């Protein structure tokens, strides 16, 4: 069955809007509107063409700009890389250079320590073997170089140091001898090397053989008249006051710990002398003959075949045999007796089998005679009044008086005299040290009390002089060596001179003094009683 039909309202379609492209016959527009539209279209077209042409013209410039910027960035990168590498090389070279300098310093320290342990013969042996001898011998292997310098090589970490010694051209006249040290100073050179880096150091070292000055006292000191104190260590020092009068001459500035007074016209190397007070104390050992710097001098004498003990009872015992000496007593005991110079004790003056020449005349033995003794202190008087005396080292349990003239310039009296009491030399002996080796080397006189030296000897004395109390030098004696006066600063059990006016005191508590025309020449002297010291004076780096 067919569906019923509905009535449908027909709506007509709207007419299309007019288009400018439609024919003018259908929807006419104003002619100026069409012209404006077409003009805008032409302008847009021209702008597109112009833009295309402009962009087409800039393609080469952009490429060049990009290439230039890229090149600049690469160059900056390369420069930065090279700069970083350079900085790294500089830092590494600086580090290696500093390590080489440290290694060179290590070489100096090594050499200094070795030389310090080899000072008994000064610095000449270090100059031997082209500057590689002496204490440097054990530093390391030796390398010889044609034309020099030879050197010894040591190692420190990954580096090495090359060390040798050189003279300081110290001869005052003539040609320098590079193998001989005359001023107690040498140069030590160390060349440090590591990984191609090298640094060189030169150090100036000085050995002091013996004390710093020719004359040192622990008490007051008076210098008057016309004495001359010369040499590389030609000075005087007091650990208390010093008074200088007259016309003394010094090679080195004298000093005092307390005050120094000057009157007259004293000179220092030809120039007027000025006072030098308030200077440091100079060390002085305790002058105990039985314990001087740790050495029992009586035992040192006993160890020598030409050593003799002159005891407090006028008996003489020869060294090489056994005798006993306590550090707490002024007397020794035992030994082989070679002479008895007592009188009135039943023995008389007699010789013994140990006396090879039997030289006993008027109670004298080889120039020595004795009187007194036997008391509670070592006060036996041992004398040399003639012109002859036997050579040797003598330990005297008493005091010594030398009024004779033993020895001469061709045959001096070679003697080391160590007395428990005072020593008085008023004659004109030609006196020289007995030995230059061992613990008594270069010792001339040691007094357990005062020491006085006067007279007009025709020849100078040589050696070191020590006194427990004071010293007095007058007249015209000349000494090549040094003088130490302790001023009784320290006493010990059995000390025969615990005070300045003790038994056989010669100077009645007066200050130590040097007067007249005394001459003391001192260039350092090696003794076991004043061991040598080594000082590093300066060091500097040498750059080529």
Could you characterize the architecture of this molecule?
Residues 3-29, 344-348 and 353-359 have low confidence and may be disordered. The longest helix has 86 residues, at 31-116. It is built from 3 helices and 37 strands. The chain has 2 domains: 104-170 and 180-209 and 535-541, Pantoate--beta-alanine Ligase, Chain: A,domain 2, CATH 3.30.1300; 215-525, no CATH class. The protein is α/β, with parallel strands linked by helices and 544 residues long. It is 18% helix and 29% strand. The radius of gyration is 50 Å and the shape is elongated. The strands form 4 sheets. It has an 18-stranded mixed β-sheet that branches. The chain has an 11-stranded mixed β-sheet with strand order 13-10-7-35-33-31-28-26-24-23-22, with no helix packed on it.
Tally of individual domains: 2
**Gap from first CA to last CA:** 132 Å
Q: What is the beta-strand fraction?
A: 25-35%
Helical content stands at: 10-25%
Main beta-sheet strand count, sense and barrel state: 18 strands, mixed
Low-confidence stretches: 3-29, 344-348, 353-359
Helical stretch count?
3
The overall average pLDDT, rounded, is: 83
Output the radius of gyration: 50 Å
Number of strands: 37
Helix-strand category? alpha/beta
Shape: elongated
Compose a concise summary of this entry:
By secondary structure, the chain is α/β, with parallel strands linked by helices. The protein contains three helices and 37 strands.
């Amino acid at each position: 069955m067919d569906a019923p039909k509905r009535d449908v309202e027909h709506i007509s379609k709207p007419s299309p809007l007019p288009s400018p492209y439609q024919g003018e016959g259908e929807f006419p527009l104003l002619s100026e509107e069409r012209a404006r539209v077409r003009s805008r279209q032409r302008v847009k077209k021209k702008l597109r063409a112009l833009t295309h042409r402009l962009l087409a013209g800039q393609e080469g410039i952009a490429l060049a700009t990009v290439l230039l910027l890229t090149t600049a960035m690469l160059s900056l990168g390369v420069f930065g890389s090279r700069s970083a590498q350079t900085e790294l090389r500089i830092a590494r070279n600086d580090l290696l250079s500093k390590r080489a300098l440290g290694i060179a310093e290590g070489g100096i320290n090594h050499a200094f320590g070795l030389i310090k342990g080899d000072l008994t013969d000064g610095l000449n042996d270090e100059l031997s073997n082209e500057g590689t001898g002496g204490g440097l011998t054990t530093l390391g292997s030796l390398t010889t170089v044609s034309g020099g310098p030879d050197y010894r090589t040591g190692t420190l970490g990954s580096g090495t140091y090359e060390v040798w010694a050189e003279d300081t051209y110290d001869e005052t006249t003539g040609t320098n001898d590079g193998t001989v040290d005359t001023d107690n100073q040498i140069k030590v050179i160390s060349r440090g090397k590591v990984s191609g880096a090298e640094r060189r150091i030169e150090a100036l070292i000085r050995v002091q053989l013996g004390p710093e000055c020719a004359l040192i006292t622990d008490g007051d000191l008076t210098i008057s008249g016309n004495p001359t104190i010369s040499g590389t260590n030609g000075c005087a020092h007091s650990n208390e006051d010093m008074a200088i009068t007259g016309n003394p001459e010094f090679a080195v500035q004298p000093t005092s710990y307390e005050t120094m007074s000057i009157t007259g016209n004293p000179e220092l190397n030809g120039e007027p002398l000025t006072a030098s007070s308030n200077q440091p104390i100079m060390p002085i050992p305790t002058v105990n003959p039985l314990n001087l710097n740790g050495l029992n001098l009586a035992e040192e004498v006993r160890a020598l075949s030409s050593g003799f003990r002159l005891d407090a009872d006028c008996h003489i015992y020869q060294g090489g045999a056994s005798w006993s000496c306590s550090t707490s007593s002024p007397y020794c005991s035992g030994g082989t007796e070679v002479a008895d110079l007592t009188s009135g004790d039943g023995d008389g003056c007699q010789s013994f089998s140990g006396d090879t020449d039997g030289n006993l005349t008027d109670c004298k033995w080889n120039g020595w005679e004795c009187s007194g003794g036997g008391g509670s202190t070592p006060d036996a008087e041992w004398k040399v009044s003639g012109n002859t005396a036997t050579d040797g080292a003598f330990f005297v349990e008493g005091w010594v008086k030398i009024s004779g003239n033993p020895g001469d310039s061709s045959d001096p009296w070679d003697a080391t005299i160590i007395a428990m009491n005072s020593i008085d030399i008023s004659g004109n002996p030609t006196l020289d040290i007995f030995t230059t080796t061992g613990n008594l080397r270069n010792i001339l006189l040691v007094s357990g009390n005062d020491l006085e030296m006067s007279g007009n000897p025709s020849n100078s004395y040589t050696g070191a002089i020590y006194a427990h109390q004071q010293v007095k030098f007058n007249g015209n004696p000349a000494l090549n060596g040094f003088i130490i006066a302790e001023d009784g600063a320290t006493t010990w059990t059995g000390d025969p001179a615990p005070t300045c006016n003790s038994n056989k005191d010669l100077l009645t508590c007066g200050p130590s003094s040097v007067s007249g025309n005394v001459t003391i020449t001192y260039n350092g002297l090696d003794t076991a009683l004043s061991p040598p010291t080594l000082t590093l004076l300066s060091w500097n780096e040498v750059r080529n």
